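lol forgot to send this yesterday, sorry. struct tokens for the thing we talked abt
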């Protein structure tokens, strides 16, 4: 099954440090959403990337195709609330057992 890299883009570089109460609630819903995807095997890994230029979210997901991956991403509560934007890119996942 194809894999995709999901990048969650915050509304500002200071977002992780200065969320308001509404944003914190949305981020709690976001975490529940991605925990569920991790539990059902759709998300292989996810979490924040602590880039000094501004943190962002990253996930590797498995989906039947790009339209299915888009459908998954647009269900993220922070995307639905238009708090965050995102990028989605096809990815070739290699494991330690595979050779390029």
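and heres what i got for the seq, position by position
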């Amino acid at each position: 099954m194809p894999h995709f890299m999901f990048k969650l883009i915050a509304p500002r570089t200071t977002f992780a440090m200065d969320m308001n109460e509404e944003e914190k609630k949305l981020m709690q819903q976001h975490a529940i959403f991605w925990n569920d995807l991790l539990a059902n095997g759709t998300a292989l890994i996810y979490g924040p990337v602590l880039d000094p230029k501004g943190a962002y979210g990253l996930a590797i997901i498995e989906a039947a195709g790009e339209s299915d991956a888009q459908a998954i991403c647009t269900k993220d509560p922070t995307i639905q609330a238009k708090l965050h934007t995102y990028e989605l890119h096809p990815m070739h996942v290699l494991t330690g057992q595979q050779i390029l």
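The chain has one domain: 3-90. anyway ping me if u want another try
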